[in-house]
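So, can you check what follows?
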Amino acid sequence: MSSSDPLQALEFYTRNNVIFLTGGTGFVGKVILEKILRSLPQVQKIYMLMRASSKAAAQDRLEREVFGCRIFETIKAQSSNDKSRLDEIKRKVVPILGDLTFDCLGISPEDLEIVGKDTQVFLNCAASINFDDPLRVALDLNTHGPLRTLEVAKRMARLQAFVHVSTSFVNAHLKNVHIEERIYPLPFGDPETFFCKLNEMSDQEISDFERDVILKMYPSTYKFTKSLAEHLMNSRRESSSLPLVIVRMPVVGGALIEPVPGWCQGISGAAAAMVSCATGAVQEWYGDETKVLDMVPVDVVVKTVLMAGPALVSKSPELNIPPNTVPVIQMGTSAHCPLKVGYLYCHYESYWQQQPQFNQRLTDDIRVDFYSIPDFPRRYRQRFAIEIDLAKASKEDAKKYGKMLRKAEVVPKKFLPFTCYEWFFDAKNGLWLDDVAPMELHSGFRAGIDWHKGPAKKKTPRASVP
């Protein structure tokens, strides 16, 4: 860890102390907001894009969904004897009514003028992480959405850095390979031409294209639309002259240290697998225990996002940027401190087997068994043969067993790309940023993440189902 601050990251946020944040009510965005308020007191104002029916409703949502979250308890505790200080911290966050799906993000002309004059750093964390979104919906949120943020950013006369948060899996069509910190060629040719063709497709055409092409190349519409967004933002970067940098994150896990160890929001991503195991709803999974799963704790991701702006402005030669392209900072543990699929799920299994019964638990038979892609459907039909037949024969039984059957089949399928395949993400830029980060933004990423805390038993491979 550097004892100094060679990139002058703290000074960067002193000079550029007005931030525009999208996705601030989401998992990563909420941790970013908390980290800024707690560790970067020099930041004076954070405009936060929020969906709401009125400014009063937005303020109410901010109090309930954001400041009411337990990750803000540290900030509240630090101000427990000084309510005026806490109020001062809260006043730094200014809700801006808007929506990612509207032109100019749905921001009123009056608010656009204000944020256009003030904003110096744009942190774009907004996205739909629903892997099941139809292609048309995913395009609107994850491709058109970032392009709409660029249009708003063009109005920001004082903008010094635009940090776009993406996913390391934008290159998921390149399986079992080493992924560098760069933008690879789009497999469909010129991004702008391809984007125009997609927009001209009818609903039926785009549905067919999703089924026959996209989902045969990418694990989900989410990965594909985030990839297309990167390509389009890169192609439009020069004409807009925007100071753009992309931060890619893999599977985001609960907080390692701060703001609350282990904290995560909602039941999605890695948390969905953990909850499905904890309740006994899913006992069998698609998977190869030897594959490497790339996961990074949310607080490590957040510190990297906050270091990206200072790195971009520094123009340091240490930041690896291919010629004529947007800088990419990639987070990943697969090539640095790899985590095996089997090891992670063994921890889930071991931990929840030791926990006492709770209301949501469906069974005491808590276990994790892995099956190959061809074996899993056979095992599913074998295990649930009686319930499947009953559900087909009776509406009452269909209602009784339908949810259980869907979860046991659908949840493992959602995680199939991560448990059956592996990618190795180069993280040279991400590691370098942690090396030069000041104490406030240093995560210890270079030293690696200790995946071996807590007990885990070795599992023997499952035999093939006849």
